[in-house]
Amino acid sequence: MKKGNVLVIGNSGVGKSTLINAVFGRDVARTGYGSKGTTKWVLAYEDEGVPFRLVDTVGFEPTWLKEREAAAAIRKWVKEKEDGEERQIHAIWYCVDGTSRKLFPKTIESLFRATAVWKSVPVIAVITKSYSVPDRIENIAMVREVFDSKEKYARNLKGIVPVVAKAYVLNDEAFAPPEGIDELVELTAALLPEGIRAGERDAASWQLARKSYLAHGVVAAATVSGVAVGAAPIPGGVTDAAILSTLELAMVNSIARVYGIKKSEASKRFANSIVEVGTVSQAARAAVAALKAIPGIGVSAMVINAVVAGCIVAALGEGSIYAFEQVALGNRSFDDLDWLQKLLESKLTANFVEKAKGVLAQSGGKADKQGLAQLILALFLPASEEKAAEKADGGKAAPGGR
After folding, report:
1. Residue 265's CB: how many other CB atoms inside 10 A?
2. Fewest CB within a 10 Å sphere: which of 57, 197, 277, 317?
3. What domain count does the chain have?
4. Is the pLDDT of residue 213 over 80?
5. 144 closest CA partner among 136, 187, 257
């Protein structure tokens, strides 16, 4: 299938790589696509089932020389033949950093100049790192103001999309979940010529992979926070439901949002049931008791608490991803609470204890929160790595790759 080409342009550090991974639903490898003279500046990413390539401008900076070099490399890349025809740019993403709104006018002016040759190509302004609702409203208004001040560019603007491409930890009990990726993908796909849009089956498969990738990012962020909460010297230890319940509910609700689950009384009961299993259920209490009863484990109580908390969050996250995926696919409903309880309790059985013991053994007794979280995720979320590997094997590498 012929693919569309979407030019992704923005300053270094704006988060283009994270955005590209979120769109494809896996950590994609950089692939040189073009002649020797253009791969220094232009890298294209593509994957099976995705109707467009993302064409990244490497090393773009808002300086006169860099702008000229990047723009020239893009134009050269476009003129290279593909299937006997010159390539086309079908859409452009202007990526601006939502945490640096004061630089919007200067940054967007620079992007205007670099893409001036594509006078009629539709543009989407992508506001990255857009973590809070008030900031998004203000950022959208400021971006629109810049475009409105340049009438010849404003007519090409087809949308302004704030995004959080990867779950971002705000504090020990809260994080900003992924936002805006589906909206960006749908808007971009709608701008492509009819002949290069993905088939329904391919699009559905890609969407599911993307949601799984984003959901696993939510669990990873929540697990880091869970380790931090567990390590804190709080009376009562991690068996106290109040310690982890807030964090777990935030994680579960974020996963539901990733899968497009709308809030309702039924979905609220579903989410609360997940949290109850992880905090006050007999399975959770038995798992914690089994770990704390291990003789001669050789690590401090703080490390044990941190590992237990992180493992519970990761196990519940893994189960929640599967549960919401089944609901999204129509295989289960929010009324299947007995099935949900059994599913999640199965994540906290003997296998859970063995995994947690493995983390404790590998920890060396060190209270390194990030290190502990990585050990936990490697044991509790291997499915995400396996899916990524399968996707990589089946994905289509761009010609001329390196």
Report:
1. 8
2. 197
3. 2
4. yes
5. 136
What is the side-by-side order of every strand in the sheet holding 123-128?
Answer: 42-45, 52-57, 4-9, 91-97, 123-128, 157-162
Confidence (pLDDT) at 244: 84
Same domain, 172 and 249: no
User: Which residues lie across from 171 on neighbouring strands?
Assistant: 174
Cβ 220 vs Cβ 313: under 8 Å: no
Phi-psi category of residue 15: left, alpha or beta, with phi > 0 → left and psi -120 to 50 → alpha: left
HSE toward the beta carbon, residue 186, CA cutoff 13 A: 7
Separation CA 376–CA 156 (nearest Å) = 47
Three-state DSSP at 143 gives helix
Rg (CA), the chain: 23
Residue tagged 């490497």 (tokens): 58
Let me know the angle formed at the C-alpha of 250 by 331 and 14, rounded to the nearest 5 degrees: 100
Query: How would you classify residue 72: left for phi > 0, otherwise alpha for psi between -120 and 50, otherwise beta?
Result: alpha
* 91 touches 191 (CB < 8 A): yes
Q: Which domain holds residue 30?
A: 4-198
Please calculate the CA angle 22-4-122 and round it to the nearest 5 degrees: 85
Give Cα 54 distance to the centre of its chain. Answer: 16
pLDDT score, position 80: 79
> What does DSSP assign to residue 238?
G
Residue 160 amino acid letter: I
Return the half-sphere exposure (C-beta side, CA atoms, 13 A cut-off) of residue 369: 15
What's the rounded Cα separation, in Å, for the pair 229 and 248?
11
- Alpha-carbon gap, residue 214 to 156, rounded angstroms: 30
CATH classification of the domain holding 32: 3.40.50.300
Domain match, 139 and 217 both: no
Distance CA 283, CA 281 (A): 5
| 50, 209 contact by CB (below 8 A) | no
Residue 298: strand, helix, or coil = coil
Q: DSSP code of 29?
A: P
Residue 300's SS3 state is coil
Task: Please report the pLDDT score of residue 35 as a whole number.
Answer: 46
Lowest mean pLDDT among 110-114, 277-281, 342-346, 398-402: 398-402
pLDDT tens-digit readout, 162-210: 999 999 888 767 788 899 999 999 999 889 887 666 555 667 788 888 9
Same domain, 114 and 58: yes
Reported pTM: 0.83
